[in-house]
Amino acid sequence: MEKFLLASTALVASTTFAFAEVNVSGTAEMGVFGASSDIFADEDENDGDLQFHTDVDVIFTMAGETDAGLAFGAEVDLDDVININRDDEGDDDGVIFPATGDDSDDGGIVIFVDGAYGRLTMGDTDGGFDWALEEAIIGGSLRDDHEHAGYNGNAGLDGTYDGQIARYEYAFGDFGVAASAELDDDDDGDGDDPILGLGARYNGEFAGVTFGAGLGYQTGADVADDGESADGSIVGASLSAKMDNGIQGIINYSHYDDDLGGDYDHLGLAIGYEWDAFLIAANYGTFDYDDGEDEDGYGVVVNYDLGGGAQLQAGYGHSDDGDDDFSTYSFGIAMAF
């Protein structure tokens, strides 16, 4: 199946669309992981003992250009596509691309057109808020074990509906701006407000320091776990800097509020040091909720670059969400192809 797909794709690219490019890349991981037993206390799973970990992902990237110079392309993340198309029990019944019956929910697929007047991206992509801000985390670990209860991935209100986002962005020099929208895809006829986002970012270099700044805002109808909908908004900013001596740091702040009283402030900090093939980094994050149910945590990673796309990764994360106090850890090798 896979060999036929690649062969037929290459044939089409080399005949009908001679100007197009189709590339295949991927990642693989193998190692071990574990967690404190508290994280499994209320679940019918293992007690956090050391376990083996393996993971493989394949990404198809396609790009082309029109006669008038308009660039276009698409990216398919096979891992996300398989997960989005599985049934509630996570069973794909041995079928790689089962039909979902919902063309609006193409998880793992991103399509774009890019020209003189900016770039339009649609699909499983970031809204304006996430696009603009840099996450307060450095380095990598298997299963992202250096993430924790206080970590914020800057999603903002992305994913409130089906996760299908349209984002327009325009760059002029080192500056860039973006606007995005995610529409209500429910068939209940209520027509909740769309999620609208705005973002701006700047990246530059001065006196041996590479730095970046981002500012983002997002608003719309936020859907709570119980299905209740309310108007919500989030605003945030991030700053980052990396010196020639290998020291780097990131700070990230955001404030969220809605009509249901789920207001919070988030602060994230990360610092890292890279020398030769080594990288050591730590991060901290905290959610300060108005109701007093605060969450925080910290993470640590050590990476060693083996060359050729392979990297040894060790990661540890500790979380405190008020009711539970637990940790996760992993060690192994990550490969990029």
TrEMBL record:
GO MF entries: porin activity
Keyword Magnesium: no
Gene3D superfamilies reported in the protein's UniProt record: Porin
Keywords, sorted A to Z: Signal
Record domain Porin: where: 7-323
Position of the signal peptide: 1-20
InterPro entries attached to this UniProt entry: Gram_neg_porin_domain, Porin_dom_sf
A cellular component term, taken from the record's GO annotations: membrane
Xref: Pfam families: Porin_4 (PF13609)
Entry keyword tRNA processing: no
Identification of the protein by name: Porin
Biological source species: Palleronia marisminoris
